[in-house]
Amino acid sequence: MVKKNISSLELAALMQELKFLIKGKISQIYHQENEEILLQLHVPGKGKQLLKLVPGKWLCLEQEKEETPIKPSSFCMQLRKYLSNAFIKNFSQKDAERIVVLELEKEETYYLIIELFSKGNVVLADKDHVIITALERQIWKDRMVKPHEKYIYPTSSVNWKTLTEKEVGPILGRSEKKNVATALATEIGLGGVYAEEVCVRAEIDKNRLPKEVKTEEVRRIVKTIRSLLELIEKPKGYIYEEDSTPLPLTGKKEKEIVATYNEAISRLNPFQKKSPYEQKKNSLLRMVESQEESIKELQQKIEDNATKGNKIYEHYTALQKLLGIVKELRKTKDWKDIAVELKKEKKIKSVDLKNKKIVVEL
Question: What's the predicted TM-score (pTM) here?
Fold first, then answer.
């Protein structure tokens, strides 16, 4: 299975499982191939633990240490200089960002910041967040990651962990995304898999325009997001053909369920690539799945329209009579007067003067 990186929600689940590393002591640091960093820790009551950091992808505990380079890199040497025998004072996710921050104590306080977005990075900063060293020097439009510069966290997007109905409503209301699922994935920050899962659990059509979502549906969305947060307080690893998640996905059958999400992530090869055959196969499978979903939607529309047609046919005489009345009234009266006359009829629910529409209850 190929998984490129983890989402914000998945990182939140991992952090729940890795909280026990707080108070652990760094006994050794290795710089593996492919830019992986391995922290060897001694954790009270748990003994030796190996924490693997894969910039731009994920972090997880490893059971065994892989073969390490004979000569450590200069970056590894700097980490050893400052962090050997340091204790982990705090270990947390930065808001809802794909950033992990280790607050470390030795003679002084240090911060080891692991960026799991984009190409990723590992940054060592002092107590004032001034950068001591970084795996990669990076220059962005609004921030600079290099020694002697102050580390500035990327501009925060929405924190889905603390969102309220008052915040979600306006976000969806002004969204220009093609559908609700995309808006939840990108503008709320849930990622594609969990945006769709929220739609399914909240019973909302993922293909609807974000602006069409009503107040009651916003309430269901927020309630569902909170329920997912509760689920990942004690996550498991649900392994699917193309993914691994910390909670079960509705309507999908997992290949295997493992005790922790960390175990599911540790099985992945972060640099594995799909063969052209697998890529083509998965592309066709996604196409078939999309077409089957479209067929279901069309069948549902056919059934809905048939039901509407039958209902209209049942009341054809009454509706024809109503149309005749409207036509007669229009000869001598304007729409305001017509609206007054029509509202006398019990079956008429509303009259839309602006769009010249009449809503009839059948």
Answer: 0.74
